[in-house]
Amino acid sequence: MRKTFVSAVVLAALSTLAGAPAALRAQGGKPPGKSMGLPVKAAPVKVGTVTSDVTAVGTLLANESVMIRPEVAGRVAAIHFNEGQAVAAGARLVSLDATEVQAQLAASRADERLTGQRAERAAELFKKNFISQQALEDAREAYKKASAQRQENEARAAKTEIRAPFAGTVGLRQVSAGAYLKAGEDIVRLDKIDAMKLDFRVPEVYLGKIRRDQPVAVRVDAFPGEHFSGRVYALETAVDDKTRTVQLRGRVGNKGLKLRPGMFARVTLELGSNDKAMLVPEQALVPRGDKNFVFRVVDGKASLTEVGLGSRTPGQVEIVRGLKPGELVVTDGQLKLQDGTPVMVLPDKPPAVPPPPAPKG
């Protein structure tokens, strides 16, 4: 009875060993991970382009902006624009009643002609010694005074015609025809918005990387799916000692006039780019304290290597020291690894399994 039981056990063991995988039998029944290494996934260190940037918030301003106001008081005789209209530089916007000024201008012109004629006659009489030098100078000074009075009245008359100082778009008018305006009273705003100014601030630590003509990308809440591009053209001369930031001003194109003065802007300022950056997947990093490491695959073993980090992009991180292009780094399975642990790199995709042969009919 005992011999029968032992034989049955031996036969069962032999049957189990015969049905085991070839790799297990080759290792004498030991688990494959003990000799073939822990299974991990790995990726090579790639070379690519990395862009360094900083984000900020800013405010959009009109490229040129002015509130149209009269320089002289008067009654509005006519309004020559429609609200929201684009106007050319020098276009007449508002006419003030100029009846009194025009009458004064006509009188000053007549006085100028009269004094001019008197000065000419005085010069002829002086040549014939009929008048003194003093009389000639008095006549000439009277003519100069009349000329100055005419120029003053012409300037006053010109100020009754209020014109656009630059090409732009007028806003909502604040007056109507027939209203009496005081000097300096608001009439309408004129904005040049075919291009926009952009004011924003960045921390002073980036001051050494900022220069003119750096590209900026702008997003606004009113058009969430669109990006507007521009460039920095000026920097403030001083750093704000309270916020430790420096103010930058850029110019942004406004095709379609979608952007408006006063809009809140989300700004991305490009500081520079490196087209020879070494990149690894972000999940390859193994943080330990204030340092960062990766596991390199060297001769079938995991090698713990400290690395220096640069810029980050979605899913990738730049390595500035510690690695070389083409080296394999572990991206999955690091939790079980130690320095020197044997590893087996698994393929990214499992091998395709051929379909079973069709049954013979």
Description:
This protein has helices spanning 2-19, 22-26, 33-36, 99-127, 133-159; strands at 38-44, 46-68, 74-79, 86-87, 92-96, 161-163, 168-170, 180-181, 188-203, 215-220, 223-235, 245-253, 264-281, 286-288, 291-298, 301-313, 316-321, 328-332, 343-345. The protein is α+β, with helices and mostly antiparallel strands and 361 residues long. The radius of gyration is 43 Å and the shape is elongated. It has a 6-stranded antiparallel barrel with strand order 2-9-12-11-10-13. The chain has 4 domains: 35-49 and 275-345, conserved putative lor/sdh protein from methanococcus maripaludis s2 fold, CATH 2.40.420.20; 54-63 and 190-273, Elongation Factor Tu (Ef-tu), domain 3, CATH 2.40.30; 70-94 and 160-186, OB fold (Dihydrolipoamide Acetyltransferase, E2P), CATH 2.40.50; 98-159, Orthogonal Bundle (Helix Hairpins). Mean pLDDT is 87; it is low at 1-34. The longest helix has 29 residues, at 99-127.
